Amino acid sequence: MGRVVVFGAGGRVGRAAVAEAVRRGHRVTAVVRAPDKYPELAGRSGVTAVRGDATDPDAVARAAAGHDAAVNASVRLDVPSEAYFTAAARALTEGLRRAGVGRLLVLGIATTLETAPGVRLMDDPAFPEQYRTFSQGHVAEFELLTAEAGELDWLMVVPPMDLTPDAPATGGYVSAVGAVTGTGRISHADLAVALLDEIDTPKHHAVQLAVSH
Question: What is the DSSP secondary-structure string of 28-97?
Answer without folding.
Answer: EEEEES-GGG-HHHHTSTTEEEEE--TT-HHHHHHHHTT-SEEEE----TTS-HHHHHHHHHHHHHHHHH
